[in-house]
Every structure is written in C-alpha cells, then in structure tokens.
Amino acid sequence: MSELVTPQGFPPATGPLVDRFERSKHKLRLSLTDRCNFRCHYCMPEDPEWLPREQLLSFEEFERVSRVFITRLGIDRIRLTGGEPLMRRGVSGFVGQLNGLRELGLERISMTSNGVPLRRHAADLAAAGLDDINISIDSIDPERFRRMTGGGELDTVLAGIRAARNAGLGMKLNAVVIRGDNEDDIVPLTEWAMGEGVPLRFIEFMPLDARGGWQPQRVVPEREIIDRLAERHSVEATPRTREPATYYRVDGAYSLGVISTVSNPFCATCDRVRVTATGEIYPCLFSPMNTDLKTPLRDGASDDDLEHVIRGAVWRKGKGFAESAGYVQRAITMHGLGG
Ligand code: SAM
Ligand code: SF4
Question: What is the CA radius of gyration of the chain?
Fold first, then answer.
C-alpha cells in the first residue's frame, strides 16, 4: 500500500493546520467554477462538459468554509481561481463577503484570471476589496497566443491588464512555457513585461492537462529559461524563499520568477490547500484523492465537524510532485482544480 493511503498518526485537534510532513498551511485557493471562455490546450479538454450548477458550492457555502479556515485553522490568504473565476456571476459581491472576514484574520484576497473579463470587472473587484490579481499571458504574439488559448484574442487580455492597473490592483503575469509552442516568447515576453513594469513568472508545463498532451520533452526547464534570457540580459539568481517561484534579477532591477514544479519542485515548503467548485478538498495539485466537504456542509455539519474533516484531509497530503511525477489519474484536471 502506498504512503498516500496509510497516513501515519492523527492530525492535531487544535493549532495550526499541518500535514504529516510538518508543513503548515496558510493559503487557501477556492476554485469558483470549472467554466472558461478560453480553451488552453495545456489545461482544458477540447469539448468540456461543465459541472451542473447545482453541484457548485454557493457563495454562502464558500464563505462558511472560508470562515472555518480563517478562524480555526490559521488561513490568512485566499486566492480565487477556476476555470475562469470571473465566468461566475456575482464574484465582486463574493469578494465583498470575504472582505468582511478581515477582522477575523484574513489578510489578503487575490485572484488568478485570464484577464479578459477584467475590462468589465476590475473596478468593482478593487472596490469590493480584492488586493491583487495574477493574469495569464503565454505569448505577446497574437497568433501564438490564439493557438495556445484555443482562439483567445491577445488584445482583450491587454485591455484587461490596463483595466486592472487603472483600478489600482496589484498585478503579476503568469506564462506557461511549452516546447514547440512558445519557448521563443521567453525573451520578448520578458522584455515587454519589463517595459510595462509588471512582474512576470514563467511556469513549467505540468502533467495536469486534460488532453494527455504532456510529455517530459515539452517541459522547458528553469535552467533553459534562464539561459535563453542570459543571452540578451544580465540575470542574477536571488535566494529562494517559501514562494513557489525562484526569483531572478534581470538587468539589475527587474524581478522575474520561474515556477519550476517539474525540474525543481517547491513541495517541501508548500503552504497551500485547495477547495474545488464542488466542495472537494485537494491538499495538493498532484493528489489523486480528494475529501468531500460539500456533503457535511449540506447535511448541517457544525464548525467543529468541518474543522475535523479539513484537518484530516490536509494531514493525508502526500509529499507532492516528486512522489507522483507523471500523469495523476483522477476525476479532475487543471480547469476544475484551479492551478
Ligand atoms: N483561468 C485563469 C487563468 O488562466 O489564469 C485561472 C485558472 S488557470 C487553471 C490557473 C493557472 O494554471 C494559469 O496560470 C494557467 O496558465 C496554469 N496552468 C493551467 N494548466 C497548466 C499546466 N498543465 N501546467 C502548468 N500551468 C498550467
Ligand atoms: Fe481557462 Fe485558465 Fe485553463 Fe486557460 S488556463 S483554459 S484561461 S482555466
């Protein structure tokens, strides 16, 4: 039997939220929906079947879950993701609900988005209490961008980035790098982001795509990303922190991150826990199992009961990518889990 199904000991009944490898958690990711306006090939199936709406947690249920995580389990950062989180109606209102939890210990409310809906929503989100947003942009070439996102228009993302900036939201950019798709974008995308004055993070392609297209040779490792940049710029590593990205100083000033989940995983310091749109707890992106939180929630569980379920789920968390390198068989892929 694998370690994953034979957890040692029991989780502590009180105190910080910890797993059996003594990693404490303080970041919660809520996936609000599996729906998306893009069809990025590295994430989404070609013809997705969306989850039925009645299976999704309501915003009231998400708020209850967040409250338990914050008041009983020490979570102080929440990130909203998806699918495309802004495909769900009423997200600004939900951000406002979360904003009301700051006095209970919530310090930061963030979002990850493909940027397109921000033209309409950035100002409302900022007014409701959103602190910052990560926007995905894999290429600065309109045709390459279209190919990677299954028809997305680069201009609509650039307009979203402008809207987020005008609204005063903190911002980072994310780009997945895939050999054969956009490795030639590494230098131009970095130079463009430097010109815009927005931090950029490259992400190694992870074996979590819905279409089975991942192959080890399509991963462009951190070393190669940095070597390509170093041909044109001075690039200096900075000491690694608990952040998932390793940061580099480009031309002495600009901060560039690389999230090297495949070539240099950060699992040993992982401080995150995820709840899907249908209320399943995934303690790790690479976890083959989940724990159902929706059933107890809808069956009238007390906060004590929910705390017990969450502590158990997190305790069973595996070591991470190193333990499961390669595809993980499970009922959910990246667009459902939220990256
Ligand atoms: N729709 C939003 C967006 O694209 O930013 C939020 C959800 S998306 C699943 C979150 C992040 O996961 C994005 O930055 C996306 O590029 C990344 N992602 C999706 N599939 C991936 C994969 N197979 N490998 C690495 N990153 C991936
Ligand atoms: Fe949609 Fe984001 Fe997945 Fe692209 S990466 S398909 S934008 S959820």
Answer: 19
335 Cα nearest atom in ligand 1: 9
**What pLDDT does 284 receive?**
84
Does an H or E element contain 204, and which? Answer: strand 200-204
d(CA 220, CA 117): 29
Provide the greatest CA pair distance for the chain. Answer: 60
**Average pLDDT over every residue of 152-179:** 98
Question: For helices 118-128 and 154-166, what crossing angle results, to 10°?
Answer: 30
Lowest mean pLDDT among 13-27, 30-44, 103-117, 138-152: 13-27
State what percent of residues in the chain have pLDDT above 70.
Answer: 93
User: What angle do the packed helices 91-99 and 59-73 form, to 10 degrees?
Assistant: 30
- 268 and 258 Cβ atoms separated by less than 8 Å: no
Euclidean distance between CA atoms 226 and 179, whole angstroms: 15
DSSP reduced 3-state for 251:
coil
SS (H, E, C) 28-83: EEEECCCCCCCCCCCCCCCCCCCCCHHHCCCHHHHHHHHHHHHHHHCCCEEEEECC
| Cα separation values, 70 from 25, 77, 105, 149, 291, Å | 11, 9, 6, 35, 19
To the nearest whole number, what is the mean pLDDT of the chain?
92
CATH 3.10.180.10 correct for 27-337: no
Rounded to whole angstroms, the Cα distance separating 225 from 33 reads 32
CA 83 – CA 34 distance, rounded (Å): 4
Per-residue tokens: 5: 């199904």
Domain limits, the chain: 27-337
Query: Does the CB atom of residue 209 touch ligand 1 within 6 A?
Result: yes
Pocket of ligand 2 (CB under 6 A): 36, 38-40, 43-44, 82-84, 114, 136, 149, 334-335
- 3 state DSSP class of 273: strand
Instruction: Please write the tens of the pLDDT for every residue from 209-226.
Output: 888 889 999 999 999 999
Give the distance (Å) from ligand 1 centre to CA of residue 303. 32
